[in-house]
Specification:
With about 375 residues, the protein is an alpha/beta fold. It is built from 15 helices and eleven strands. Strand 10 (about 355) and strand 11 (about 360) form a beta hairpin. Helix 1 crosses helix 6. The structure holds adenine (ADE).
Length: about 375
């Protein structure tokens, strides 16, 4: 094995990485990975047949509803086109797909797309998330166990710590791990080749990624909120998988109320199913959808209790704004990041809220939606 100097930026970081890795060797019961990622046996280097992680585990509720191929994936047409071309070109060259960064609000299908990519490439997808990669050996264990052309999906990639990030740089660029063995004057860097692989990173906060990490992704794609007709098609597809008899108008009503987000659409549909089964209906029409979603306080535009609390606090407490994110988060007892990445994006996209340099502002449409009089310009 050739010994090369660490090119990953911080030698000290890489050194700590291997020191840690060496200090605590893996045992059969020590899972280095997020429990969603792979069976423990894999960590010992046992090879598994290609296939997605989802296929290797009993499917979760969300998993059973996911599209498996690009052709089944509804919406995000630009993303599908870009990735479809990249997959076809990569396959024809017999290479690993370039690294992909997917960013956008939660629930829009970033994990699903990573699994779809693996399926299209005919390889396994390992799923983990940055908070699960706390120790250097976590990411080292994952990288050395990858087979050629496999997909490694890291959710919340903006939360990777510096050591993990620096281990990733040569891995992404040259399929190489730069590990430092020993301490002090006897420390040496060893370079370990790893299989060519594809990193699919997902984040709700692309701006929080360091630029060296962002620059190592060959494809950077934003997932957008879904169009109404795509959401209706997704709801109809899910209803089919759940064997529900849902009228078109009912599907459209769920689509209108799901904040442009398939994950929420599927969740709302399950709540509608509950009401239908308790009331003994086999057919689900628009009135039943309205009743069920009203019960869950999801209004006709898809705003839920958290959205309305935010807008109401702004209107009642701060005259509609401008008001700072931290102030609002404190007032609501929410974490500012959750407010910024989960609640705000849909309200902004709907034009109910505005971000200004002086803080957040409820728009005229936001006031009208909550039944407040629209303010006349001063
Ligand atoms: N279920 C959840 N998201 C989906 C999508 N984009 N296409 C098809 N089915 C889905």
């Amino acid at each position: 094995m050739a010994i090369v100097s660490s090119q990953s930026g911080s030698g000290a970081a890489a050194r700590r990485a291997v020191d840690n890795a060496g200090a605590a060797p893996q045992t059969r019961r020590q899972s280095l990975l997020d429990p969603r990622s792979c069976p423990e046996d894999d960590l010992q280097g046992d090879s598994q047949p290609p296939g997605s992680t989802a296929a290797a585990e009993p499917p979760g509720r969300e998993d059973s509803l996911r599209p498996r191929r690009l052709a089944d994936y509804i919406g995000q047409s630009e993303l599908k086109q870009v990735l479809g071309i990249a997959v076809a070109a990569t396959r024809s060259r017999g290479e690993a797909l370039d690294h992909v960064l997917l960013h956008g609000p939660p629930g829009l299908g970033k994990t699903t797309m990573a699994l779809v990519l693996a399926e299209e490439l005919g390889v396994r997808c390992r799923i983990t998330s940055a908070p699960a990669l706390e120790r250097p050996r976590d990411i080292i264990g994952l990288l050395v166990n990858l087979q050629a052309h496999e997909v490694l999906f890291i959710d919340e990639i903006h939360r990777l710590n510096r050591i993990a990030e620096e281990l990733l740089y040569p891995a992404m660029e040259d399929y190489r791990l730069d590990l430092t063995v020993g301490k002090g004057t006897t420390a040496r860097t060893r370079s370990l080749p790893i299989a060519p692989f594809t990193l699919v990173g997902a984040t709700t906060r692309a701006g929080a990624l360091s630029s060296p990490l962002r620059d190592r992704f060959g494809l950077i794609q934003r997932l957008e909120f879904y169009e109404l007709e795509d959401l209706q098609a997704i709801v109809e597809r899910t209803a089919g998988l759940l064997r529900l008899q849902l009228e078109q108008e009912g599907a459209l009503e769920v689509a209108r109320r799901c904040r442009g987000t398939p994950r929420i659409a599927n969740r709302l549909l399950r709540r509608v199913r509950d009401v239908a089964s308790v009331q003994g209906h086999d057919h689900i029409g628009v009135e039943l959808v309205q009743e069920a979603l009203g019960l869950h306080r999801v209004d006709d535009r898809g705003l839920d209790a958290s959205d309305r609390r935010l807008l109401t606090l702004m209107l009642e407490g701060y005259g509609g704004g401008p008001v700072g994110l931290e102030t609002l988060a404190a007032g609501l007892g929410e974490d500012p990041t959750t407010l910024e990445t989960v609640i705000e994006p849909f309200l902004l996209q709907q034009g109910l809220l505005q971000r200004t340099p002086r803080g957040r502002l409820v728009t005229a449409a936001g006031r009208a939606h909550l039944g407040w009089p629209v303010q006349l310009a001063a």
